[in-house]
Design goal:
single chain, alpha/beta, FAD/NAD(P)-binding domain, D-Amino Acid Oxidase, Chain A, domain 2, 2 domains, eight-stranded mixed sheet, elongated, binds flavin-adenine dinucleotide
Length: 336
């Protein structure tokens, strides 16, 4: 027995709090193993209230390794197949990393801190992304990376959960069984070490520029990325500000993000701004996820800037813990 629940018992009653990427991935993994899962979210699904709504959807473990710990690379590599298996719609086209000429040192620095890339010249770049031809003479190409549309994959996970009989309610059921808390930043009431890292983004329509894959433009102060969503629509992100303020996007951030996009390609100056969004990424002090127990509830949180990249691995660890009692790699001992 663990926490009064028989370890290994299939068909356990489990209630997952939160229908962001962490809650949906956990519910998916548990339901696929035969547990009787219920989902609870006061918003009745993924939406603007959740950080997962605003994400770029890059599955970029090699690029993220620039600033992340080894587990992000190791577990992030497995995320691409997990998403393909459970939601589909993953585009495996790699990532391009560029700098403007004056920031060339940033490209060398990035190359030193990452791996899994090819250094390419202007001709190869022009073959890959015709609209960048003649604009850059050097780039790093990360061929094994991928991207997805966060809102689309969350909708598909939710639909598949409904097909498996997983209910989604606004309130905790009378008999919730074992509770797994995936409330993101809202869980600060029980996780005081959780902090917010504000991210701001725009959605642009710019059919004049056709990019097949995410492009990161390095800059010492304002690095940006563009993630193609299809039909000339791009997610442009994202600021990284040590603040949990979730108010509207600031003028300065819009100016900086758009100026960088304009430097990547001047046609972005004519783009339509479809959306402005901001949220705060839930993060622990080491910026790695944690699985733990507070009282009689398990929690999974702290996905920081790696929600789509790490939710599959965290969900697998949670499900293994429930099935076998095994202590997850991301386990964090909490003093109750
Ligand atoms: C601009 C931006 C870009 C990003 N880009 C990427 C990217 O490219 N790749 C990547 O991997 N990650 C990215 N991230 C990070 C990623 O979005 C987060 O790590 C992730 O969304 C965190 O997910 P979560 O499920 O823990 O939290 P959330 O998405 O915030 O979900 C929490 C859910 O809990 C619900 N909730 C609140 N209170 C309760 C309650 N009492 N009971 C039940 N439910 C409750 C909320 O309604 C919400 O739906 C980005 C983040 C930002 C802000």
């Amino acid at each position: 027995m663990v926490d009064g629940v028989t370890v290994g018992a299939k068909g356990q009653a489990i209630t997952v709090l939160g229908a962001g990427v962490m809650g949906l991935a956990s519910a998916t993994e548990l339901a696929s193993r035969g547990h009787a899962v219920a989902l609870v979210d006061p918003a009745l699904g993924p939406g603007e209230q959740g950080c997962s709504w605003w994400a770029g959807g890059m599955l970029a473990p090699w690029c993220e390794f620039e600033n992340a710990e080894e587990p992000v690379l190791r577990h992030g590599r497995t995320a691409i197949d997990w998403w393909e298996r459970h939601a589909g719609g993953v585009t495996r086209a790699g990532t391009l990393v560029l700098t403007l000429g004056r920031d060339r040192r940033e490209l060398h620095r990035f190359a030193r801190r990452t791996k899994g890339y090819e250094e390419i010249g202007g001709n190869r770049l022009a073959e890959m992304e015709g609209d960048l031809a003649g604009r850059f003479d050097r780039a790093l190409f990360f061929p094994s990376e991928a991207h997805l549309d966060p809102r689309a994959v969350m909708a598909r996970l939710l639909a598949r959960l409904a097909e498996r009989g997983v209910s989604l309610t606004a309130e905790l059921p009378d008999d919730p069984g074992r509770i797994i808390d995936c409330r993101g930043l809202s869980a600060r009431d029980i996780l005081p070490e959780l902090r917010g890292v504000r991210g701001e983004m725009l959605v642009l329509r710019c059919p004049e520029v056709k990019l097949a894959r995410p492009v990161r433009l390095l800059h010492p102060r304002v690095p940006i990325y563009l993630v193609p969503r299809g039909d000339g629509v791009y997610m442009l992100g994202a600021t990284m500000i040590e603040s949990d303020r979730i108010g509207a996007v600031t003028a300065r951030s819009v100016l900086e993000l758009l100026s960088a996009a304009y430097a990547l390609h001047p046609a972005f100056g004519e783009a339509e701004i479809l959306e402005l969004g901001a949220d705060a990424r839930p993060a622990f002090p080491d910026n790695l996820p944690r699985i733990g127990r507070i009282g009689d509830r398990l929690y999974a949180n702290g996905l920081y800037r790696h929600g789509y990249l790490l939710a599959p691995a965290v969900a697998l660890q949670i499900a293994d813990h429930i099935d076998t009692g095994e202590k997850p790699e991301f386990w964090h001992e909490t003093e109750n």
